[in-house]
Amino acid sequence: MIERTRPVTLTDVERVIFVKPTIRAWDRAAVAHLWEPFRDHYRERVRPLDWREQGLFRAFRFCAGMMLALDCTYWAFTWDRLLTWRAEVKARELGRSAIWQRQWDQSWTEVTTTLFFLGVLPYREDIHKLYHRELAAKWVGQARSAEIEERLVAVARTIGYRHERQVRARGVGVLLSVMAASQKRELVDLTKADFEAWEAQTGRSPRVASSGVTMAQRVLGAMGYLAGESPRGVGGPSRRHGDWGRTPPAIRATFERFLADLGATRRPTTVATYRVVLRRFGDWLGAFDPAVHSVADVRRQHIEAYKQAVSGMRVGEHAPPAHTTQLGTRRGAPLSASSQVRCISCVRAFFDTLEVLEYPERPGRALFVRGDVRRVDEQLPRFIPDDHWHRIVAAAEGLTPREVAARRLPLPYERTRAILAVLLECGLRAGELVRLDTGCLVTARDTAGGGATHWLRVPVGKLHNDRMVPVRPALVEAIDAWMRLRGPQPLHHDERTDARRDFLFTWQGGRLSEHTLNSLIAALCKIAGVPRYTSHRFRHTLAVQWRRNGMRIETIGQMLGHRSLQMTLRYAAVMPPTMRRELDAAFAALDEEHRTTAQVRVVLSPEAHLAASRHWRESMWVDLGIGWCGLSAFLPCDNRLACLPCPNFTEKRDQLPLFEEQRRNLVELSMLGAGVLPVDRGEEIVGAVAALDRRIVAMGGPGAEPVTPAVDSSIFEGDPDAGADPHARRRDRSGAARRS
C-alpha cells in the first residue's frame, strides 16, 4: 500500500532536474526521497553485481522520463497508466533500430522490477515479457529458487512424473511465478487461492497455465503443503456458479438461499443438480415472462408452459456457458426422459420447500398437482452380451505394457491392470471404484481351514453404506503390484466423508475420475472390437452372470450394496438361461406327471389302458433302457435311439434283461402304431429292433429265436389289417401265450 506521506505530485525543482539529459550527484541529492529508495532496491534485487552502477543511473534516468510523461512521482504509478504510456512510446518510436528497442525494453524491465520490489506496482507479467522466472528468482533469491526447483523435481519424479524437463519448464516456473505474484517466499505459506489468482491474470496459454498449476499443486500436496487443501483434480479449476443467465435478481437471491439451506442436509452433488435445474428454470422464466420479478409472482400458467417447454428442450439450452463447453457431442440432443422428469421434480421440490420453510416470497398457492411429475419407466438392467463380455475379458487379460503405452491408456501398466481387475470382478459403482483408498484390502484368517481370505472394503457410496466384498488372489496380486510402483501421493478431499484420504488409484498427484475410468473402458472396448460400454453396464453384467451361475439373490444384494432385495430382484428378470432352465424343468415335471398317470391308469383296468393308449402309447413304449423318452413318437428325434446302432457303444452283460425288455416294448409299439405312426418313425423302430438283436446276441442272449410277431416295415406302408383294433390283437396274443 502507498503511504499517504509519500509525495505523488512533481515539484518545479523535480521537473527541472528530470529534464536534464544527465542527473548528477547533487541533482540526485536534491530528490533523495525518490532516488534513495529506488537505488537501495535496485542494488539489492535487480543488479546487485553492478559495481560501476551504470545500469542504475540509466534506469533512474528512464524512471525520471516516465515521471515527467505522467506528471507524477513513481509512487502514483499504476499499470493502466504505464501500459498506455508504453504503447504511445512504441508507436512513436517505431522506426528506431533493433538495438535501441532492446535497450529500451531492458530499461523498462529494470524500472518496473524495482517498482515491484518497492511495493509501488503489483505483480504483472508485462515486467519481463516471456522471461517470467527472472522476476520470481529475484524475489525468492537465486539460491533459494534453485533449492526449491530441485526439491520439486525430486518429489515430482517420486509421484509419477517422468519428464524432468517438463516439470522444470512448467511446474517449477509456475510455482516461482505464483510465489512472486503472492509475494510469499516460503512454500508452506502458499494456498490454492494464490494459484487461482495467478491463473486468472496470467497472459500465458490457458492450456499451459492450467497444466502448470495442476502439476505444481499436486507436487506441493505430496510434500504436505497447500495448507491442508487438496490439489486440483481432473478438469482444471472448479467452475464458479455465478451465472444465472436471465433469471431476475430477486428470484436469483431466493435460489441461492434455497441452495444454502439444501446444502446443510444434502450431498454436494445433489446441490449441484438442483443448481443446474433451477438455473434452467430461472433462465427460461426470464425469457418466457419478463414481467415476473419474484418467486411470489409465479402462477400455474407458468408451470404448465414450463412443462411443455421441457418436453421439447435440448441439451445445453438454458445452461451456463461454463457448462455447455463440456457437453461435447451431446449438445443439441433432446433431453432424456429422466432429465425431463428431474427438471419438473426439482422445481416442485423447490416450491414445496419454500412453503415448509416459510420464505417471505413464497407464492402462497398450490402450483403443482398430482400427475405433474410423471413416473420414470422402470427398465430392466442392461447387460453386456456374453460374446462381447468374453472378448472384453480376453482383451483385458492380454494387455501388455507396450500396448498400454501405445494406446495411451492410464499409465502405468500396473495401474491399468489393477483398475480393470477391480472393474471385472467386484461390480462396484464408478463412484465407489474411484474412491477406493490404499487401505481397502483386508486379509482375514479362516478359522475352519486356517487359510487366508481377502476382502475389499468398498467406501460409503450412493446408498450411504459401506460393505466388504470377497476377492480372489489374482486381484490382490494386481493391487499389490500397483502399490509397489505407486509411491507416496498427496491426500485428496472426500466430499462424502468430508475428510482427506489417500485414494488408491492416485497417480502423478491426481486422483482417478469417473471420466478417466469410462475413457479407459472405451479404449478397452475398442481393443476388443465391441461397442462402447459404460462402467455401470459392467456392474449389471456381473450381477446377471452371478445369478445365472447359481449365486443367491441375497448374496448378490450384499455384493452390490443394495439395501433391499427388491433392488436386487431386477437382475432376476434379465437372465433368459435361468428362466429357460426353470421352464424346461417345470414342463419336464408335467410330462413325468402325465406319463406316470397314464401308466397307473393302464394297470387299473383294460378300459383305462385303451383310453390312455390313444394319447400316451407312443411315449409309454419308447424305452431307452435307462428311462422313458417323453417325446412323442410322432416327432422326429436324432438322439432318441442313436446309441443302439452306434459302433462306439459298448453294452454291459448284466444289462441283458433290460435290452430284452426294451426290444419287446419296441415291437409292441410297432404293433400299436400300425397305420398310425409315420413311415420314418416306423423305420426308426425297425432299425432299433435290429440293433437290439445284434446287442442281445453279442451279450449271449437268445438272439437266434424269432420273436413273434416279427417287426415288418410293411405294417407302416399299407398292411391290410392296419385298420383292425391293435389292442384286440394284443389280447389274442396274450391268450395264446397262456394256453400254450
Reconstruct the topology from this structure.
Blueprint lengths: L11 H8 L5 H6 L1 H15 L7 H17 L8 H14 L5 H21 L13 H9 L1 H17 L5 H19 L9 H10 L4 H17 L26 H14 L5 H21 L11 H12 L9 H4 L12 H21 L28 H12 L3 H6 L6 H11 L6 H5 L6 E5 L6 E7 L8 E5 L1 H14 L5 E3 L4 E3 L12 H15 L6 H14 L4 H8 L4 H4 L7 H29 L1 H15 L35 H17 L6 H20 L27 H14 L1
Antiparallel strand pairs: 1-2, 2-3, 4-5
Helix pairs in contact: 3-6, 4-6, 7-8, 7-9, 8-9, 9-11, 10-11, 12-13, 13-16, 17-22, 19-21, 26-27, 28-29
What's this entry about, in short?
Helices cover 55% and strands 3% of the residues.
Could you characterize what this model shows?
With 740 residues, the chain is mainly α. It has helices at 12-19, 25-30, 32-46, 54-70, 79-92, 98-118, 132-140, 142-158, 164-182, 192-201, 206-222, 249-262, 268-288, 300-311, 321-324, 337-357, 386-397, 401-406, 413-423, 430-434, 473-486, 514-528, 535-548, 553-560, 565-568, 576-604, 606-620, 656-672, 679-698, 726-739, and strands spanning 441-445, 452-458, 467-471, 492-494, 499-501. The strands form two sheets. Strands 1-2-3 form a three-stranded antiparallel β-sheet. A two-stranded antiparallel sheet has the order 4-5. Helix 7 (132-140) packs across helix 8 and helix 17 packs across helix 22 (514-528). It is elongated and about 145 Å long. It starts with 11 loop residues before the first helix and ends with a helix. Mean pLDDT is 81; it is low at 235-240, 598-606, 612-617 and 704-740.
